[in-house]
Design brief:
Layout (H helix, E strand, L loop, with lengths): L1 E9 L4 H9 L3 H9 L2 E9 L2 E8 L4 H10 L1 H10 L3 E2 L11 E2 L8
Antiparallel strand pairs: 1-3, 1-4, 1-5, 2-3
Length: about 110
């Protein structure tokens, strides 16, 4: 199992819309998240930023992420959420959500 954290901005005028979307995530999107070996997925908000955390339990992260990205329902979900988000200027090329470095963990 590997833990992942990432961050993205949220447009202030879209925060309530984003919260409403995530209060009723489409069942097919949740199914795909489980299908690609993501567990314990959470999104937190603070001061204009969204922080995402999940645990990956599969064997091929790149293949699983490509499978999710190719899913038409997931693409539609992302298209609905994207106008609410504001990527960080410091994100790596090709990233939407900026990956974070884990600096501490304890069980």
């Amino acid at each position: 199992m590997k833990r992942y954290g990432s961050v993205i901005g949220v447009r202030p005028e879209k925060l309530e819309e984003y919260k409403k979307l995530h209060a009723a995530v489409w069942p097919a999107v949740l199914d795909m998240i489980r299908e690609v070996n993501i567990r314990n997925y959470s999104i937190y908000y603070r001061d204009g930023l969204l922080f995402s955390y999940f645990e990956y339990v599969g064997d091929d992260f790149e293949a699983d992420m490509a499978k999710m990205a190719a899913d038409p329902t997931t693409q539609e979900w992302w298209a609905v959420c994207k106008p609410c988000q504001e990527p960080l200027d410091t994100r790596a090329e090709g990233e939407w959500w900026a990956d974070m470095e884990e600096v501490f963990h304890t069980d």
